[in-house]
Specification:
heterodimer, A: 282 residues, MetI-like fold, 71% helix, 0% strand, B: alpha+beta, five-stranded antiparallel β-sheet, elongated
Chain lengths: 282, 361
């Protein structure tokens, strides 16, 4: 819409700035808190301007963790989170691509039955099936392992459904042209379908990476070994100090660090992400 | 290059719909055959069966004497050009053309040679070869789609309404190019279209299909001059043939319209149909302005359409209200309501049986 009215311009900017301020303020507080020492953080009022302890806090968060706590640095936990998030994202995409491919392009008995079976798992998120899932994972000896962290979260109805819709928009003639060119099923999948779903895969990767990264309940349940803790769950544990006040500066620094990888993923994949969500022309 | 035989081909869809009934066609080596008919007549289904994209319910399809019913499309040595081009959108023009050859495991050098040769024939520049299909215009995409078929060096080309996504001007141009290309390569071709002009201009022979049956098979001129049925008569030729109910006279030498107007028939041929109710067919271009009074029939004009090269006059004969169209060449100025003296040569008259809709002669 093209308008040339100063008041509208002013108003729209005001609304946008207000929106940004509301979203950015907590992040600013987090940043400010991460730059002060522990003593300043328990005094009122809360500081609103950065202090000079940023690098000291960074050093402590990365290498030592909160003092008196049982944690050892945040590096290992970020690595664990990264592995879990990547395994979930890549695993989900791989499985959904293949199942959508089977559902759309193959005629087998009970095809729609299988589709609906996948689809109704949407109604069963991790929290609902957490006890039986825990039982299965425990019986398979996958507690305290990357497999245990990621596999139960991999099956995905949403992604399967999304790829199904994408494949349905690809004209049948392309399949026929590929058949005449002599491409078999898997060749068609890798040479034609995959490259054509590139932007959708990217968009889904961003969403699923963040989904995996933010997992809290499941890692909390199945990891007892500190070397397998993920960063999101351990932030919460940092607050549970028995005797003294929580070390807000270290906790906030850890939070900042925990925010970084998703931000990096979003920033680098933003172009593909937007394309994947909006592009319709095939 | 090859011959193609369709023997008693039938197709029944799983829902019981019978799309094709007992079709028999023998296609010679190097022949350009056009399957033509209105939408839903089964022409595309028939071609897709030749391509191997549809199962054949009954009958056999042979390419070069070898039965191909059970062969995969890739093993039939055919190449197909699709209506919406069906180019792989993520591949460059070059890759699109090379893909089939790559799968076949043909060496890179040969692929390169064949693609460049095809690009030459189709006048695709080196600059266009590296582009993606979406960066090309409709006509160029169509060329690429044909290039993909040419590089395969197949024994049969299949064209599935390849021109219907182009605008009218480009369609005429590409039509000529396809015709020239087929002459140059001499490859047996099957072409599906619903456009009778395309069919007439392209085909060595035409197969007119209606409701899954062959109405007539013949050269364009045979179809034009001796349409075997009402359907073919109405389908071939533009503007369409005029039809009206009539009755052969008692002596069989003329045909009478309702309301007393009658036209002379060629002598002797229709004697056996004396007094028979018929459908009379006259092509708009066969009706002309009478120069003498003895064979003139008066037509009352209702509407005049000026096309520049031609003038179409709509009107009716006397009491017979059936709409008649006359095509006169050049610009002719008539007014609605004017009475025109019109004649037609007896041998340009077509008669059809109203029940069987077959040609009478």
């Amino acid at each position: 819409m093209i308008e040339n009215r100063p008041f509208i311009t002013f108003l729209s900017h005001a609304v946008l700035i207000l929106g940004i301020a509301i979203i950015a303020f907590p992040i600013w507080i987090t940043f400010v808190a991460a730059t002060h020492d522990a003593v300043r953080m328990v005094q009122v009022p809360l500081p609103l301007l950065p202090g000079d302890q940023f690098f000291a806090n960074l050093d402590q968060a990365l290498n030592k963790g909160i003092s008196g706590g049982s944690n050892s640095g945040v590096g290992m936990m970020i690595f664990n989170s990264l592995v879990m998030a990547l395994m979930i994202a890549i695993g989900k995409i791989a499985i959904s691509l293949l199942s959508a491919f089977a559902i759309v392009y193959f005629r087998f008995p009970f095809r729609m039955g299988f589709f609906w079976m996948i689809f109704i798992t949407l109604m069963l998120p991790v929290e609902v099936r957490i006890i039986p899932t825990f039982e299965v994972v425990a019986n398979l000896n996958m507690l305290n392992s990357y497999w245990g962290l990621s596999i139960p979260l991999i099956a995905s109805a949403t992604a399967t459904f999304m790829f199904r819709q994408t494949f349905l928009t690809i004209p049948d003639e392309l399949l026929e042209a590929a058949r005449i060119d002599g491409a078999g099923a898997m060749r068609f999948f890798f040479d034609i379908l995959l490259p054509m779903s590139r932007t959708n895969i990217a968009a889904l990767f961003v969403i699923l990476f963040i989904y995996g990264w933010n997992q809290y309940l499941w890692p909390l349940l199945i990891t007892t070994d500190q070397s397998m803790f993920t960063v999101v769950m351990s932030i919460k544990q940092m607050l549970e100090t028995a005797e003294q006040a929580p070390e807000w500066n270290i906790i906030m620094m850890t939070t900042l660090l925990a925010m970084l990888p998703p931000v990096v993923v979003v920033v680098f994949m933003q172009k593909l992400f937007v394309k994947g969500l909006t592009e319709t022309e095939k | 290059m090859a011959t193609v035989q369709l023997n008693n081909i039938g197709k029944v869809y799983p829902n019981g719909f019978k799309a094709i009934h007992d079709v028999n066609v023998e296609i010679d080596d190097g022949e350009f055959i056009v399957l033509v008919g209105p939408s839903g007549c089964g022409k595309s289904t028939l071609m897709r069966m030749v391509a191997g994209l549809e199962q054949v319910t009954s009958g056999t399809i042979s390419i070069d004497g070898q039965e191909v019913n059970k062969l995969e499309p890739a093993d039939r040595n055919i190449a197909m050009v699709f209506q919406n081009y069906a180019l792989y959108p993520h591949m460059s023009v070059y890759q699109n053309m090379a893909y089939g050859l790559k799968i076949r495991g043909i060496p890179k050098a040969e692929i390169n040679e064949r693609v460049n040769k095809a690009a030459d024939i189709l006048e695709l520049t080196a600059d266009q070869l590296v582009r993606k299909p979406r960066q090309l215009s409709g006509g160029q995409r169509q060329r690429v789609a044909m290039g993909r078929a040419i590089v395969r060096e197949p024994s049969v080309f299949l064209f599935d309404e390849p021109l219907s996504n182009l605008d009218a001007k480009l369609r005429v141009q590409m039509r000529i190019e396809i015709k020239l290309l087929q002459q140059q390569l001499g490859t047996t071709s099957i072409y599906v279209t619903h456009d009778q002009t395309e069919a007439m201009t392209l085909g060595h022979r035409l197969v007119v299909l209606n409701f899954g049956r062959i109405e007539q098979l013949g050269t364009p001129i045979e179809l034009y001059e001796k349409p075997a049925s009402l359907f073919v008569a109405g389908f071939i030729g533009s503007p369409a043939m005029n039809f009206t109910d009539a009755k052969v006279s008692a002596d069989g030498d003329s045909v009478d319209l309702i309301g007393g107007v009658s036209f002379k028939l060629p002598e002797g041929i229709y004697r056996s149909f004396a007094n028979k109710e018929v459908v009379l067919g006259m092509r708009p271009e066969d009706l002309e302005i009478a120069s003498s009074d003895d064979d003139r029939r008066d037509m009352v004009t209702r509407l005049v359409e000026q096309l520049g090269a031609d003038t179409l006059v709509h009107g009716s004969f006397g009491e017979a209200k059936a709409d008649m169209t006359i095509r006169l060449s050049g610009i002719q100025n008539f007014n609605p309501g004017e009475v025109l003296p019109v004649r037609i040569s007896p041998n340009k008259i077509h008669l059809f049986d109203p029940q069987t809709e077959k040609r009478l002669d």
